[in-house]
Amino acid sequence: MPEQPWPTRPKGDDQPTPLPERLLGGPSQPELALLDSAPGQPATATPPGRRRWPLIIVAVVIIVAVVASLAVVLSPPATDHPPQSALHGTIPDGTYTVPDDLAPGTYRTEVRFSRYEWLFPTYCGVTQTTPDDTQLWNSDEGSVIFTVADLPGSVVTIDGCLNTRLASAAIRSDIELISNGYWLIGDELDPGTYRCLVDFQAAEPFGWITVFGPDGTVVDLRDSADGSVIAPVQGPPGSYVAFQGCASIEPAEQSYTPDPDPITNGFWLVGTEIAPGDYRCAPPPSQPDSTRYVAQYDSDGSLLADDYLLQDDQLTITDTPGSVVKFYGCHEITRLG
User: Fold this and answer.
1) Is the separation of the CB atoms in 266 and 226 below 8 Å?
2) Is 263 in contact with 208 (CB distance < 8 Å)?
């Protein structure tokens, strides 16, 4: 490369000639323009902000990767096929084969709180899978009770849980407040009819009461996105119940509303809150053909009557002591006569 001549000062110019930028350690503005210009295009200098965007993107990617890595590192590791000695205490998250790794029986596990709720929501789930079926127990609050059926070769998966052990070794006593989660009927919660007031502060308001038999199968399931959910909580020894999406949980007779005005969708006690008789369930004015549903349950949980109101919007609630009625999809509910 030929040597570049030093700049000379024109005759009569008393001011010193500045050295070129490249001799001071960096390119000049014209050179930057040439570097940023496509061949054959006019030379234009690239704004400094535009050159910072790639660095910003790289920094964001690195931050997300670090947060995800911390979540994985700080979470308890899952264990596949733990040694039999692990079954004498608490059982870690993992996958287990029945009965080699996990003996049949009823277990309780706690929901493990997520320190990164915004990234990894709190959730504890247990499944037992056979070639023909999958049984699921789950909750995002409190504890989960599940029953491992005696099905050799079936697979049980525990995820997002903590302190899994036999339910008989984790019975709660002196309960002052019934909260969302699973409860043993009889040992922890007195049998009776309970009311779950739907939590309207939740992102998606929806309340459930699910009753499980001693074998872990669902005996009764009731839900509503409005008002409250009422269900009988009862069963033979070993039965349990799950409450989810409830703002409060109380015996139904301790939290009733006599002669409610207005009557809304949800569950109501017949006789105590709503009198037997003929009612009208009007559809929303903008959806006159929308589906509405009304069901009446006996005190033991059996279905007395139900009806999908498609055209006729009138229904009859029978005088059955201890029964419960559910309204769904009604814009306005009024008693006739």
Assistant:
1) yes
2) no
For 9, 85, 103, 170, the CA distances from 89, given in Å and listed in that order, are: 90, 8, 13, 12
pLDDT at 228 over 90: yes
What amino acid occupies position 298?
D
Pairing type for strands 94-97 and 79-80 reads parallel
- When the candidates are 2.160.10, 1.10.3470, 1.10.287, 2.60.120, the CATH number that belongs to 256-337 is 2.60.120
| Structure confidence by residue, pLDDT tens digits, 232-289 | 999 999 999 999 999 999 999 888 888 888 999 999 999 999 999 999 999 888 888 8
d(CA 312, CA 279): 11
pLDDT 10s digits, 59-94:
777 776 665 555 544 444 444 444 433 445 799 999
* Number of CB atoms found within 10 A of residue 6's CB: 9
Q: Please tell me the pTM assigned to this model.
A: 0.73
Burial of 330 (0-12, 13-18, 19+ CB in 10 A): buried
**Rounded distance, CA 87 to CA 155, Å?**
16
